[in-house]
User: Fold these one by one.
Assistant:
Number 1:
Amino acid sequence: MDGDNPANAFNGWWPSALTAITSHAHIPSVMMEATIKGSVGSVALLVEAVDREIQISTLESAYLTPVWSASGRLESVTQQYQIAGADVAAMGIAVPSENYSASYWYRREWTTTECRVYAPWLVSDSEHSPSVSADLTPAPHGLGFVPIVWVRNLRRLPVILTVNAPSSGQSRP
């Protein structure tokens, strides 16, 4: 029976579903952005479901710390960068008005089971121990893998310049 052949699934709803996901998640523009950002190093693509929609976004690898297993599997990724106190307040977190222009650390960690978002803390507070914010942390994803695709640019080969010194009596062009 043709309906029992798994290959027939590709003639059914798969092509239209993949086309819908590709256009709805803006994959062509995300991949162009990833190509530009990753051209001089690495780039990470975060794949997540937000409000029941697939979203793909690029993450700056300069602010990411990946942890790899011995077999090369991505085990976790930590993102940490500085934001202004006004941005912290825009997240719905109480910030004293005198700290609106102060710098805060923003930190997220993705693992194979969850994404943890930490409560932002003042950069100047060197004694602070980061704590997970229940209000900012989404529900566990339970995927069994980190929902980030790490794209590493090809390792550059060393450039070796050979300069042929002119022999005595010859001039260089």
Number 2:
Amino acid sequence: MPLDVRKYAAPVIVLMDPATVGFFIVGAAVLLERSQGVLDPLFVARLSCNIIFAQKH
């Protein structure tokens, strides 16, 4: 890769890689919870999305 392109491409690659990994981890967590049947009770509960997400952390 030429040096002038590397100067602009390197920060993009470094910043996009963790974002991509995080995206796939969240997707895998949703699929796991879905296969375990965790999401169905959450959608009929009378809790707001903010409370549900706060309890997950």
